[in-house]
């Protein structure tokens, strides 16, 4: 399997926030944004693996800014690291200012997807070769996030989490 770059999985989804997708404050429902992020991340994971992918976990979500009705929202997703059968997908959410067109980052998330074969059994995915400084930073941090998740789930002993220990040791 040939390694792939994050740009090969990059997915952009742009849409407008409609009144039926908002809460009583006329801001986008968090669940609606989660669904949009999940769809974009799923496409990114599929582009990387060329397999059916399933959401394994939502590792991090930050709702940093409300997204008002009528806003143009772009969800950008790309694989940030590939493991044996799983992929971490980093998602950035951008909003265009309705009056001047300037874009600002309003939310972000990190999802994990698993590639599966036609019978639903996990299957291997290509390696990821980051290219830009941001891609390298996200790639390196992904292993720490995975180890932390495994430790918290009781699937890895803290003493075996070498990447996490390196943060605290010289």
Automatic annotation (TrEMBL):
Family membership = Belongs to the acyl coenzyme A hydrolase family.
Class of this enzyme: hydrolase
| A GO CC annotation given for this chain | cytoplasm
Kindly give the InterPro entries that the UniProt entry links to this protein: Cytosol_ACT (IPR040170), HOTDOG_ACOT (IPR033120), HotDog_dom_sf (IPR029069), Thioestr_dom (IPR006683)
Question: Is Ligase a UniProt keyword of this protein?
Answer: no
List the PROSITE patterns. HOTDOG_ACOT
**SUPFAM superfamilies in alphabetical order:** Thioesterase/thiol ester dehydrase-isomerase (SSF54637)
Please state the Enzyme Commission number of this protein: 3.1.2.-
Please give the organism: Arenibacter algicola
Assigned keywords, A-Z: Hydrolase
Put simply, this protein is called Putative acyl-CoA thioester hydrolase
Keyword Glycoprotein assigned to the entry: answer is no
Where the record annotates domain HotDog ACOT-type, the positions are 7-119
Query: CDD domains given for it?
Result: BFIT_BACH
């Amino acid at each position: 399997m040939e390694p792939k770059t994050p740009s090969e999985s990059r997915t952009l989804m742009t849409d407008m926030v409609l009144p039926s997708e908002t809460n009583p404050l006329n801001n986008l429902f968090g669940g609606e944004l989660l669904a949009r992020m999940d769809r974009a991340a799923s496409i990114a994971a599929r582009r990387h693996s060329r397999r059916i992918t399933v959401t394994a976990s939502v590792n991090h979500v930050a709702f940093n800014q409300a997204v008002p009705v009528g806003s143009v929202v772009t969800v950008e997703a790309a694989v940030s690291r590939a493991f044996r059968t799983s992929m971490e997908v980093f998602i950035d959410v951008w909003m265009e200012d309705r009056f001047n067109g300037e874009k600002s980052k309003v939310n972000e998330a990190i999802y994990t997807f698993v590639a599966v074969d036609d019978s639903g059994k996990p299957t291997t995915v290509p390696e990821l070769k980051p290219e830009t400084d941001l891609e390298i930073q996200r790639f390196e941090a992904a292993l720490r996030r995975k180890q932390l998740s495994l430790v918290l789930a009781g699937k890895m002993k803290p003493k075996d989490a070498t990447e996490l220990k390196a943060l605290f040791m010289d």
